[in-house]
Design a protein that fits this description.
There is one protein chain. The protein is of the alpha+beta class and 121 residues long. The protein has a single domain (5-111), classed as first zn-finger domain of poly(adp-ribose) polymerase-1 (2-Layer Sandwich). It contains four helices and five strands. The strands form two sheets. It has a three-stranded antiparallel β-sheet with strand order 1-4-5. Strands 2-3 form a two-stranded antiparallel ribbon. A hairpin with a 2-residue loop joins strand 4 and strand 5 (44-50). The termini are far apart. The structure holds zinc ion. The site of zinc ion has 8 residues, from helix 1.
């Protein structure tokens, strides 16, 4: 489903308190810069906060997708994990490594898809 964007704003503020990244669900620490996307989709006002690494991965993946499929819908906020799992083991490894460093845990089936397979705990 494609939603119509009626307003969109972006900023790169410094966190005044801890936040949760909408992609890796890890912690964006107080004092850390993050990427804030805010807008009105259809009739709903929504805000999404991404950590630095998730923003970078999303931008890289979006660029790759546009080169392959110029008409593809953009990756929706909060759905980066689904796209990264399908994209490449290298991106998935970066995504999971970043999430783990931010206190997030991931299911074993995802760890098994990383390169090299599985993190040693
Ligand atoms: Zn993140």
């Amino acid at each position: 489903m494609s939603e119509q964007v009626r307003a969109y704003y972006y900023s790169n503020p410094t966190a005044r308190k801890d936040h949760e990244c909408c992609e890796c669900e890890g912690t964006i620490l107080r004092g850390e810069r993050y990427h804030k996307h805010w807008g009105v989709w259809d009739i709903e006002i929504m805000a999404f906060k991404r950590c630095k690494t998730c923003e970078e991965i999303a931008n890289e993946l979006e660029q790759e997708r546009l080169e392959k499929w110029p008409d593809a819908d953009p990756i929706c906020f909060g759905e980066l994990m689904d796209h990264v799992v399908e994209a490449s083991p290298v991106l998935l490894t970066r995504f999971i490594g970043n999430g783990i460093s931010r206190g997030q845990t991931f299911p074993q089936w995802m760890l098994d898809k990383t390169t090299p397979p599985a993190f040693a705990f």
